[in-house]
Amino acid sequence: MKLAMIGFGQAGGKIVDKFVGYDAEHGSNIVRAAVAVNTAKADLMGLDNIPEDQRVLIGQSRVKGHGVGADNELGAEIAEEDMDEVQGAIDSIPVHEVDAFLVVAGLGGGTGSGGAPVISKHLKRIYTEPVYGLGILPGSDEGGIYTLNAARSFQTFVREVDNLMVFDNDAWRKTGESVQGGYDQINEEIVQRFGLLFGAGEVEQGGEVAESVVDSSEIINTLSGGGVSTVGYASEEVENASGGNGGLLSRLTGGEEEDELDTAHTTNRITSLVRKAALGRLTLPCEIEGAERALLVMAGPPKYLNRKGIERGRKWLEEQTGSMEVRGGDYPVPSANFVASVILLSGVNNVPRIKELQQVAIEAQENIEDIQEESEENLDELVNDDDDELESLF
Ligand code: GDP
């Protein structure tokens, strides 16, 4: 699936930048164009892979390249005001060659949190291609303002995109790690999962392509209908000494019995990976029961993929989610030394983490209002003399 990616803010820019690197390394052909937008000049300069002319600094007249702090209302305002500059970069994208837009942002900050919903609304108005979001939720230790920003941005972002895929930093942070080192690892995880998912729709036809290979339209259909999505992933290392020759060696050396054993083993591996992916850590932890649609992608060397395994995995997912719309297929990666299962669960509704985020956000909002009120009173008390005997100058 070919995407035009737009990274808004620091996290958004870094993640899109990593996608570009992943794409070049794996030849997955998913990033047709990449744009980074920010109010902070230093963040744009820190990127490695996005071409310089595709890095857009907005809000210069208002914040002089220093960012918006964590003020997402200002982030949204600036995005609105400087949309022409963003559109200038988008104009150079051959939109007829992309299947969809993907807007990526951390929802807890200012620029991405405010700007991502604004750019999504704009893209949806102008183009017919679907506009998807990838929103990153802050860790719960980041504090009230980040939680409040994320809760408000999430609500708006979901409304403005065709589907919002969510990654929750809170579920992925490891204790005892530097924030930066932690993010690097988390960003790898994000790019790996979504790279395999979107790469599935980009396999060249012909050659070793199995009949059940996933197509872009299946990803699009799974995401259509809107709402919130989460992605599960599990992988297992396999030997791939034949370098992708589709088990030629085993066929030459092994008898029929061995082949049958192999088939059973391959099928079991696939079904076990499907369970692990669905029941393990999701990008946004939630109850999978009730997910409206799902897509199962099995990636790996073709000799380790089989129809029976995917069919069983698909059926199991149908039972677990209760959905009638569970798609599944292969993503043959001849050179891989792993078999991986990637599961996209779309239209998830039972997400305790979002409810918790909203609760904490409401408390933070009330606290902020109280503190503001108190601060006005305190200042008044400090500045004015008790009996109001002094007069101010003017
Ligand atoms: P902005 O530049 O104002 O949009 O704000 P940032 O992108 O710097 O931060 C917004 C939120 O994104 C933070 O609260 C973090 O939760 C998260 N974040 C920042 N950098 C990264 C990153 O590199 N990876 C991930 N996964 N999350 C990040």
Structural key phrases:
single chain; 14 helices; binds guanosine-5'-diphosphate; 10-stranded mixed beta sheet; 60s Ribosomal Protein L30, Chain: A
Radius of gyration, in Å, reads: 24 Å
Spatial strand order of the main sheet: 3-2-1-4-5-6-7-10-8-9
Small-molecule components bound: guanosine-5'-diphosphate
- End-to-end distance: 65 Å
Looking at the structure, the CATH topology of the largest domain is Rossmann fold
Can you give the mean pLDDT?
92
Shape, principal axes of CA atoms: elongated
The CATH superfamily title of the largest domain:
Tubulin/FtsZ, GTPase domain
Count up the domains.
Answer: 2
Report the total helices.
14
Overall CATH architecture of the largest domain: 3-Layer(aba) Sandwich
Q: How many strands, which pairing sense, and closed or not: the largest β-sheet? A: 10 strands, mixed
Roughly how much helix do the residues carry, as a percent range? 40-55%
Order of helices and strands: EHEHEHHHEHEHEHHHEHHEHEEH
Q: Proportion of β residues? A: 15-25%
The number of strands is 10
